[in-house]
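Forum > Structural Biology > Help requests

Title: Can anyone predict the 3D structure of Armadillo repeat-containing protein 4?

Hi all, first post here. I have the sequence for Armadillo repeat-containing protein 4 but no way to get a structure on my laptop. I'd be grateful if someone could post the structure tokens.
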Amino acid sequence: AADQTASVLILCAMMELDLMKETCQLAILDLGGLEVLLNLLDTNDIRCKIGSLKILTKISQNVQLQQTIVHMRGLQRMVNNLDSPVKELQALAAETIANVTKFHRARRTVRQHGGIRKLVKLLDCFPNSADLRANMEKDLEVARCGASALWSCSKSTKNKEAIRRAGGIPLLGRLLRSPHENMLVPVVGILQECASQETYRVAIQTEGMMEDLVKILKSDNEELQMLCASAIFKCAEDQQTRDLVRSHDGLKPLVSLLAKADNKQLLAAATGAIWKCSISMENVAMYARTLSSTVVLFISPPGLMEPHGRTC
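Reply #1:
Sure, ran it for you. Structure tokens for Armadillo repeat-containing protein 4 below:
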């Protein structure tokens, strides 16, 4: 029980705690602190909302707290704050949603309360305004956090369709050309999740995103490489997509990833993409001409997915 200034000071003091420590997270829950933090999201004081979300963003990585936040209708309050004109508040709310939506009920709750549409809106980080340059960094951070939340939500089939209906595909295509790796990771993550649906595969093909995915495949970031390879694996059901991968010189980078045998997720994604691309005989011919020794060298060790190795 305190006025707004005292509440802000208390929140600042809480930020000094080791909020990533499980004992601290559970203490906040046991002492009723989580309910207080969520209630602050309903106030009109921006400072209290930001302070509360800074704490919630950290402690919401605890599985038990994630479920309790959903039970206490915390996600609805976070979704409501996505409409705020304050960029920092939008980013923190989206980042916390990304942490909490690790299970089906949470993802459904976000969709049912209009959260998908609001998160897609955050991806439009290039508004036509006079102070675009001054706000660019804040806008990009809001878009990154929005993309992270959508990535987490996109593991639900209905949410994938909701993202498409909200106009998310062209915005994702635009962000796919971003030079910032921390932006690309959630964007490519969304695309590789949604590429299981035909509508997204067609859009990736028609919007020219395959060329961008191949370019990103050549980066040094292994998480990005894994996500791109996984997206190519899902998209390469179609002959035209397989041709696009070859025409944009994507076959050689895929094979080069097989050298990273210590990263099993990356290895599985790369072998899957190579397997699917090998359905086209033109791609097989290219492997035979220029890459056959590399393919044999890295696919022959045991432990890889058998269909991938056998097809290659």
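The chain is about 75% helix and 0% strand. Residues 128-132, 296-312 have pLDDT under 50 and may be disordered.
Shout if anything looks off.
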